[in-house]
Design goal:
Blueprint (H helix, E strand, L loop, with lengths): L86 H7 L13 E5 L2 E8 L2 E6 L2 E4 L5 E3 L11 E3 L8 E10 L2 E10 L8 E2 L5 E4 L4 E3 L4 H10 L1 H11 L2
Antiparallel strand pairs: 1-2, 1-5, 2-3, 3-4, 6-7, 6-11, 7-8, 8-9, 8-10
Length: 241
Amino acid sequence: MTRSNLQLYDFRPTKLEYYTPYPCPRQFLAPPPEIPSTSGSGSRTPLPASPLTSSTPAWDPSSQTPSVLPATLFPPASSSTLPEPNDQTAQVSRHPFLSQRLSGVKFKALADGKLITVYTDNGTLWQLHNKRALYIDITKVHPKHPNPTRDNGLCVVMEGEHCGKYVRRLYFQKSGGENHMRVVVVLRKGAKEANEIGSPPEIHVFAPGILCMCDETADERKGSDRLLEDLRKAAAAEGRR
């Protein structure tokens, strides 16, 4: 028998394994590259002005860094970009019936010369007709102002610090050569009940142009006239002096 130089472990089968790199800890990973500043010094490469649509030649790295971006990227703001409101829009926005303090008030109004009853809800004007609410163009509706010398019906103040208050005429008086109304503030109780007045009564003098007549029932009107009888006599006597 011939003796060989092979050892027993030389016949052991070889174990094949794939090399799996050891994961690199996150703290040793390289940070992401910093985005170059468009307003920095020449030590950094600036962003191109418009990489897709620019018609200028490619930037030469040996040249100086541009300090200003093309004006076409940031056009100057223009004050004329918003459309100017037309006359009808301005008229609607200024309409006295659209005041939030007058929401729900039933106004007497004029539309094409006809007397109608309207009210506002969420910025929309509605006409009351046969117990139904019908949409109506607010630009065609105008307040029914009281006559200072004779209208004793319920009115509402449409502007100023007293906007939204209900008032009734006591008498008229001259102011600046024109007739104004001396009125008392009233509190409405119900459709068939007389209005209430404060103690002492809150009395003001208003131009008829800031007042609008309101819808009311006959019972409310008659009861309130009886309540205000003495105040009206006193106001008339004072006005004649």
